[in-house]
UniProtKB/TrEMBL annotation:
<dbReference type="GO" id="GO:0005524">
    <property type="term" value="F:ATP binding"/>
</dbReference>
<keyword id="KW-0547">Nucleotide-binding</keyword>
<dbReference type="InterPro" id="IPR008144">
    <property type="entry name" value="Guanylate_kin-like_dom"/>
</dbReference>
<comment type="similarity">
    <text>Belongs to the guanylate kinase family.</text>
</comment>
<dbReference type="InterPro" id="IPR020590">
    <property type="entry name" value="Guanylate_kinase_CS"/>
</dbReference>
<dbReference type="InterPro" id="IPR008145">
    <property type="entry name" value="GK/Ca_channel_bsu"/>
</dbReference>
<dbReference type="GO" id="GO:0004385">
    <property type="term" value="F:GMP kinase activity"/>
</dbReference>
<keyword id="KW-0067">ATP-binding</keyword>
<dbReference type="GO" id="GO:0005829">
    <property type="term" value="C:cytosol"/>
</dbReference>
<dbReference type="Pfam" id="PF00625">
    <property type="entry name" value="Guanylate_kin"/>
</dbReference>
<dbReference type="InterPro" id="IPR027417">
    <property type="entry name" value="P-loop_NTPase"/>
</dbReference>
<feature type="binding site">
    <location>
        <begin position="11"/>
        <end position="18"/>
    </location>
    <ligand>
        <name>ATP</name>
    </ligand>
</feature>
<feature type="domain" description="Guanylate kinase-like">
    <location>
        <begin position="4"/>
        <end position="182"/>
    </location>
</feature>
<comment type="function">
    <text>Essential for recycling GMP and indirectly, cGMP.</text>
</comment>
<keyword id="KW-0808">Transferase</keyword>
<keyword id="KW-0963">Cytoplasm</keyword>
<dbReference type="InterPro" id="IPR017665">
    <property type="entry name" value="Guanylate_kinase"/>
</dbReference>
């Protein structure tokens, strides 16, 4: 069986990564999303084991020591990491897995898994980004400032990614990502086993 795709989605806070991934999962039953671990405190309405695994710094660090993360990074003052087991099992099983992670994590994944598909999301403008973070209403004023400032650092890494999707209308961004995945699945490199089978 062909391996599933590992799809990395990054973008500044408030650009709409979460919204887009949620919609993608709703529409595509063969996709799953990796649930990250974090030391950030849960936002109102966030559920442990659904949005994130909310951990203490002590437990997070013990997972680092046990090599249980595919990648991890310190972002906006908290630790975030991708638990290894879930992602590797799904991919081996032929399923497509999304990682919604920051640029530091994406670069680590690129080193160990260059076959991944790397997508960067941008809002239509930085003004709109600020409006979206404010409108979401989940962050303190200091955190909004920090996330907005970090956005300008994160966008410096866009060229490390394979694709850029602008999230103006959610549904259009979702459709673009679905098209990227369809095209990637048709790539010659990813189909060498199938080519051999057909030609044998
Ligand atoms: N490296 C890494 N970054 C992550 C992971 N999970 C989430 N992030 C990133 O951490 C940042 C903050 O996430 P979050 O606190 O949910 O805030 P949001 O981006 O404003 O929704 C975002 O850039 C996420 O993509 C992870 O497992 N690893
Ligand atoms: N295309 C869009 N147009 C308008 N608002 C959006 C759009 N995409 C997301 N939002 C809103 O912007 C806010 C931030 O989106 P979210 O998915 O939480 O971003 P991220 O996960 O990148 O931090 C949310 O309130 C969400 O409803």
């Amino acid at each position: 069986m062909a391996e599933g795709l590992l799809v990395v989605v990054s973008g500044p806070s408030g650009c709409g990564k979460g919204t887009i991934c949620k919609e993608l999962l709703k529409r595509n039953k063969d996709m799953s999303i990796s649930i990250s671990a974090t030391t950030r405190k849960p936002r109102k309405g966030e559920v442990d084991g659904e949005n994130y695994f909310f951990l203490t710094e002590e437990i997070f660090k013990s997972m680092i020591n046990k090599n249980e993360f595919l990648e991890y990074a310190h972002v906006h003052g908290n630790f975030y990491g991708t638990p290894k087991k879930f992602v590797l099992e799904k991919i081996e099983n032929g399923e497509n897995v999304f990682l919604e992670i920051d640029v530091q994590g994406a670069l680590q994944i690129k080193e160990i898994y260059p076959d991944g598909v790397f997508i960067f999301i941008l809002p239509p403008s930085m003004e709109e980004l600020k409006n979206r973070i404010i409108k979401r209403g989940t962050e303190s004023e200091d955190d909004i400032k920090r996330r907005y400032k970090n956005a300008f650092e994160e966008v410096k890494y866009i060229k490390k990614y394979d694709y850029l999707v602008i999230n103006d209308k959610v549904i259009e961004a979702v459709e673009k990502i679905e098209s990227i995945i369809s095209a990637e699945k048709c790539s010659v490199d990813r189909q060498s086993k199938l080519i051999n089978k057909i030609l044998s």
